[in-house]
Amino acid sequence: MPIIKIAIRDDDLSFYSKQEDIDLIYGRYFGRIPISFAVIPFVCEVGQIDQNIKGRGKTLNVGDKKYNIGLNLGLVEYMENKINNNNIYLSLHGYDHKYIFKNRNYLGECLWKDKKTLEKELAGGKNHIESLFTQRLEVFVPPDNGISKECIDVLVNLGIKNINTIFDIKKISRKIDIFYLKNLIKRLFYKVNHTQKPYSVPQSIFYFKDHREKAAILFNQKMSFEEAKNIFEMQTREGTSRLIIATHHQELIASPTFLSEFKKFLDYLLSVDNVEFVNIKEAFNE
Ligand SMILES: [Zn+2]
Fold first, then answer.
1. Top-level class of domain 4-284
2. How far is the CA of 143 from the centre of ligand 1 (A)?
C-alpha cells in the first residue's frame, strides 16, 4: 500500500495552556509521533458569548486584555525542550485569536482585521515566538479557518507560504488569477464526485502564485474513533498522500471520552503499516 504521511495538529497553544495537560495527552506518543502545535502569541481573554448562536460553544476569545505566552515560563521551557528533541513543531495561529460579531456571525481575526494591523501584529507575533523558541515559523493556521487575501499577502511577505486551510468556494476569497481558477475547478470537480462531508474537501495541496493551501480534518468531540478510522480508510482508498488531523488540547482535557477516542485513533494509526508521521511543514512538501 502507498505511504500516507500524517501530521497531528493541536490548536490554540497559548498563555492559558498547561504543560501537564500536553503531557497527559501526548506524553506516551512523543518520540513516535511529532505533534504540531498552532500557537497564539498574545491570546486575548475568553469571554461569554450569546449561547443561542448556532454552532458555537459558550465562550470565545472576545476580551480586550491580552496574555503573552512568554509569561507562561513552565510551558515555554517544556515546549522548547520538546522542540529540540523534534517531538514538537510550531506553527503560527494568528496574533490574539480575537473574534468579532459581524453579519450575524463570529469572525476570526484574519477575516476582520485590516492589512496594516495584520502586518504589525503578525510580524510581531512571529518574531516573538521565534525569540522564545529555536524554531522558525513556516506554517500558518488561520484562527477559525478563515483568511482574507490581504492576510495571505502579509504572510507571504513574512516568508510564511504554507497555509493550513482551504479557500471558500461559495465566495471569491482569493485573488482571481490562473491559479485560483485552476484550483476552483479542481475543487468543484471533486465536490461533484464527493457529496458527503468531510469528503467533499480534497486533501491534496493547492498551489497558488505565492503560497500553498491544504485542508485539515478536524477531530472534535462529535467524532468517534470509528468515524475517524473510516475517514482514514477512505482517504487511503482515494490515494491521499498527506493528511493533517487537527484537534484541541483544551477540549481533549475537558472530556475523558473524547480523549479516549482520540488516543484510540492515534494508537490505531501507529499500528497501520502505511502511515508515516510528519510535522505540519512536511505535510506541505511533495
Ligand atoms: Zn484556534
1. alpha beta
2. 4
